[in-house]
Fold this protein.
Amino acid sequence: MDSTYILLQHYWWFVISLLGALLVFLLFVQGGQSLLFNLGKTELQQKMMLNSTGRKWEFTFTTLVTFGGAFFASFPLFYSTSFGGAYWVWTIILICFVIQAVSYEFQSKKGNLLGKRTYQIFLMINGIGGPLLLGTAVATFFTGSEFTVNKDQLMNVGMPVISSWSNPLHGLEAAFNIWNLCLGLAVFFLSRVQAILYFINNINDEELTTRCRKQLLPNAALFLVFFLAFLVHIMLREGYAIDPSTGEIFMQPNKYFINLIEMPVILAILLIGVVAVLFGIGKTIVSDKFTKGIWFCGSGTVLTVLSLFLITGYNNTAYYPSSVDLQSSLTIYNSSSSFFTLKMMSYVSILVPFVAAYIFYAWRALDIHKIDSKEMSSGNHTY
Amino acid sequence: MIESIDSSLIDWSRAQFALTAMYHWLFVPLTLGLGVVMAIMETLYYKTGNEFWKTTAKFWMKLFGINFAIGVATGIILEFEFGTNWSNYSWFVGDIFGAPLAIEGILAFFMEATFIAVMFFGWDKVSKRFHLASTWLTIIGATLSALWILIANAWMQYPVGMKFNPDTVRNEMFDFWAVALSPVAINKFFHTVLSGWVLGAVFVLGVSSWFLLKKRDTEFALASIKVGAVFGLISSILIAWTGDGSAYQVADKQPMKLAAMEGLYHGQKQAGLVAVGILNPEKTSYRDDADAFLMRVQIPYALSFLAKRDVDGFVPGINDLIKGGYETEQGIALSAEEKMNRGRIAIQALSEYRKAAKEKDEAAMKQHRDTLEANFPYFGYGYIKDPADLVPNVSIVFYAFRIMVILGGYFILLFLIATIFSFKNTFTNKKWLHYICLWTIPLGYIAGQAGWVVAEVGRQPWAIQDILPTGTSISRLSTSSVQITFFLFLALFTILLIAEIRIMLKEIKKGPANSH
């Protein structure tokens, strides 16, 4: 295989990993939704919370859409196999995001048919279901899924579908695997931790901030328990390796641990990420004046998740393994787009820093003014 | 055991995609059209400093926001349905089709997502100039989003810039610009965006007329009508032009769709265009001898002229397209049976090529590759079982096309009248016109839906024209799974639609003075 093509496959796996990492960071919006009734004791406080993380919901939504679109463009066999196979888990995730999309705008409007409370419950459902199921789905990148891929099937005119899911639950079975669930819960509690840190940074309300600080410790503790358990598990378990000479997939003991050792840069990214997450949380817990925890924790989250995604695809690893037919497992080599498409898409990706720059500028322009009770009653557009 | 696709799975997968697309298209055109109107109004505020325009812009912005949220919600399902329900499609053409979707996300969605927040929440937080730029960037983002998804859709109707790779068993892109700048894509983009602009103008006219009927907020209503009527007039004239271009392209690239649009079974020179007509329900197949029409009024020569730019041009009918044998620019047209045979040869050659590749028999590989390439233009026909499957639902396409065209003509007339009366300052006392404008709002939606029905039902049975039938594109799911999600989406979208309409009505009743 051409070395430039291999480079592009690695580059696109990096882009996908980065988008996945940014998505996990942006799940702080979902975290805010799951905390709505825990933290917001008055209607005003709930309104401030909704307007704090709520004004960022479109970033999470758009990142999910772009994550899907980029996966489609760069690794179409994943799009075809996972979405078409794990039908139910992806459908439920999408429904969670759909009900969220309208709930912010509709919940406080007169004539909204279902009542304010229902839309807030929709937000709660998305706040819990979104991170939990996304985490569970991503965990299958390590634990495997039950599918087969046979491209020769296309020549079978009666049944030309190349990807088949072996489990009749079509993705829901992932939620019955303890380790998948473990990562799902880790992502869920991380989203809550980040939401708390974001509220502390973004809302100017003493009572709410005090309550946020109280909630931080238990949520952070639960996050750490589930995250560390998952991390230790994947370091110890065997992984799905590719034999570079034949392209065959085989099980290799401690594959993901070996990947970290053999790719020290990624190990460093992981360690820096974990330290940044712990610093953001720890400093916020010990210092009542510290409000910038979200930026440390958020950056750390991006780095940690990035490194976890990278070790599933790099160093001759099958990133979407099949537990029922090893040779059907998807690798960045056998599932990617053509050289031409990856090259063309790489040119497009040059624009990403420009996109990031205007997002940063606009985000800052809005966040420089903290959310407070005065703004909620100013008569301007609010959720 | 011989496996086969359950035909009801294909039907339910189609139904689910159609449901999602039709709901999505209830909201997107208003976003595109109303977005421009409110941006024009904010520009007037920026230029004049007159608070009246700010209040006006904010009112339309409020309605825009309610509509936008549900458009986004239905859109995400559509994108992922290519994977969940059309997984074979996603692999077979993902190398080409995925790129526009990714570019849409990177270049368009983030622009929308970033600046819409500034537009709604930034009035007192950023400068007037930055706010205006944000409003325009929001609508530019929405329009760019339409551009990329329409490039993808146009490619399905007119696949260019790609080549089939038998080693990877998929189509691969070799010319991005051929995909992005295909004439079908360009025309489809303008035609579709303009239909959104027309709906936006119809909406503004209708809502403003309601205020006139209620004798309240008259200044706001008349100012909005002026902007809406001119914007609508320009858009509706331009859409007639792009519509003509679209029909010409359909005649060239999807002649079966054109035949269905016209209910034309037997091709002819100097063919007339059916202005109005009633199809004969007894005519159920191209194979029977029943007359196609119970009645019709034709415009002589018009179909030949519009389709071929020549009044003597031959327009093939459904029977001609099935039986072949007529002359085309490329030579004598093949019959459906011949195309199906060549499609089967292509599929067999692919199979033989794969076997030869496993055995590393290079001579055989070359031989089968050559056979495959020679027959690949008909690859999708190899999956077709009966020539009758190549004929789309004629009555749906025929009537949808008439509805779209007749409403298009009506909109031009309405906008012309509204423009004249609004600039003569006599719009206020034309109560009949206020009622017409108000009741035209649903017609704006019907026209847009009818347009998509023509485009999508008319191209059946193809997901990718001539290359991949819809039935070969699906995911391997149980029919019951798709039925459940169909009804789930139906219930969810319907509830949200009712909620949206109710919220809109309440907000409209509040009026511009209370549009916070």
Notes: The mean pLDDT of chain B is 96. Chain B touches chain A through 98 residues (CB under 8 Å). DSSP finds 15 helices and ten strands in chain B.
